[in-house]
Structures are given as C-alpha cells and as structure tokens.
Request: fold
Amino acid sequence: MEAVAKARFVRISPYKARRVIDLVRGRNVEDAINTLHFSGKSAAIPIEKTIRSAIANMLNHNDTSKVDPHNLYVKMAKVDGGPSLKRFRAASMGRPMRLKKRTCHITVIVAELTNKQLN
Reply:
C-alpha cells in the first residue's frame, strides 16, 4: 500500500531542493524525518512537511487501519521545477536586470515494507 503527498509552488529553487531530497530517498520514514529535522538546509522544512503529510495520508486511508508507522519508508521522492517569477532589479547605470525567482513541486510516495523486504 502506498500514499502520495505533493507540495506545489514551493518558493525554493529546485536545484537546492534536489540536494536535500537525495538524502532521504529510499530511507525509513523515522530516519528521513530525523535527517531533515537536523539538516541546516532551508529546503528541509517543506520536504519534511510533505513526508509528514504522506504518512498522515497513509494512516488515515480507509483500507490501512492495520498499518504500522514504524514499517514505512520513502519509496519515491522527486522535485520538479515549477513556474518562475520574473522580477527586475537595477543593475549598473540604472539598467533593469531580469531575475528569475524559481519555484518547485515536491512529490513524496510512502510505502509499507513487506515481509520480503524486511529479511
């Protein structure tokens, strides 16, 4: 059984978010949350929030009343680029210089470990 959580239009660069999400992909949920909580990166906050949302989706689903939260792991985690906000800032001699404030979409899939995976 799997559960999905998505955070869309997060105001952080997808490059920075991918560096953090690579730390937790494939890990146990408890280890992933601990790693993110004590990470110094600002991208860890929305990623941790998305993982917690996926866990809550898994536990509150109708068919999964027997799910043990200690047997969950991050099956898939990815960061896609979102739309960029176009802004201008003054450059030399008062000329406008274009800035791209990037956004990203974070997708996390949490699954339960099976007996075959535990051994």
Q: What stands out?
A: Helices lie at 14-21, 29-37, 44-60, 115-118. The mean pLDDT is 92. The chain is about 30% helix and 35% strand.
